[in-house]
Amino acid sequence: MKPIRHLTRAAVLAVTFTVPCVAGAAVDEATAQALARDLNAALSAATGVIADLQADINAAKVSKSAVTPDAIASAFVSRYEKSVGKPYDAAAKDVSGQARDALHKAVRETIARHEGQIVKGGPDAFVPAYFRAQVLKRLNESALSKAVKVYATNRDGELINEDWSVKTTMKNSPLAGEVAGLMKTGALEPVAKRVGDRYLGYWPMKLAPACVTCHARNGLKQTEGGFGGALVIEVTVK
Question: Which of 36, 48, 64, 77 has the least C-beta neighbours within 10 A?
């Protein structure tokens, strides 16, 4: 799985992952780095499953058996494991295991809620960014700690709603200024570093053809391969 994934404007939400055993606690920098990488890979894998089905969904030709919660969860786990070369261990008692478990549940809940919509299909009936937004919404509504936060955001000029901007989604984050500065450059290289008592994982999202086409229908002119926002993972460190 490539670290750069596409992002549509509808996907911009902030979420917090909980680790019950370390709720609100800081972790060491090495753990924070590993967790950020793992969450990025997992979220990219989950979104990629829907991207693979996009043509069939748009054409209302998706197989009902391919979009059950079990089928999507299985495809998501397989994609993750192929990408990172290790099992998707949602039963692990560490920070990453707890985050994987929360994400797996959110994926299943999202598909269960929208299964009929996906099968009915039609142009842009269920796009990857909408799926991601719904998954993040469910994670954000869980009983989670503030040890880890994940944001999907974009530059003001590429947003439908200002509530999805960096200044809004990250208004309580000490990394807001740092991320806003990275956004302005439009660079496509990931950034990973410690900033004060936070670990920052910043993964730019590259616009895929389907993203550009969908956005154009909403009045936004973009270029395939260009900057399409970023996934930001913030971990509190010791």
Answer: 64
